[in-house]
Amino acid sequence: MANVLKNAWSMIESEMVHSVDHPDGVPVTHAVVFGVGTYPYGRDISTAAALVDLSSPIETARAIANWLIESYDNPLRPLAWVSLVVSAPAPFVYRNPVTGIDYVVPIGTTDDFENSVSAWSERAGSDAENGSIFYYCGHGLSAGVRDCTLSRSLGQKP
């Protein structure tokens, strides 16, 4: 899942920014955090979907991931995994506040959403007693009871 990038610093390229091993059979919590602040294809004014970039989702996603890793405390379902996806103007590097390891996280395309949610759902669904946290900050749409989160790919991929 993780590829080591070869450059001046060694960073891990992965959505999984934190994991804790627990004994088999112990219900755990799996979290996925999205911060989508950059919409490079949503600026085409020839479409009805001209969006401005947002700064708050990027820092909010970092803060939520930090809080989960440093402070989340549920003795019935301790934290097992935190996945992070951030759409920023440049590749987003996240430093795990406990391990100090740097991660280059996915950039928030529609494919990144599908992959992250699928992996999170599979992990959380591996035990009926598991807990799950889904956090999203960014643009969205709502029509009655139908809600939609928007990915970085808005305007590029339907």
What does this protein look like?
Mean pLDDT is 88; it is low at 1-8. The protein has helices spanning 56-71, 110-124, and strands at residues 3-5, 11-13, 16-19, 29-36, 79-87, 93-95, 102-104, 131-137, 140-143, 146-149. Helix content is 20%, strand content 30%. The chain has two helices and ten strands. The two termini are 27 Å apart. It is globular. A hairpin with a 2-residue loop joins strand 9 and strand 10 (146-149). A four-stranded mixed beta sheet has the order 1-2-7-6, with no helix packed on it. It has a four-stranded mixed beta sheet with strand order 3-5-4-8, sandwiched between helices. Strands 9-10 form a two-stranded antiparallel ribbon. The protein is α/β, with parallel strands linked by helices.
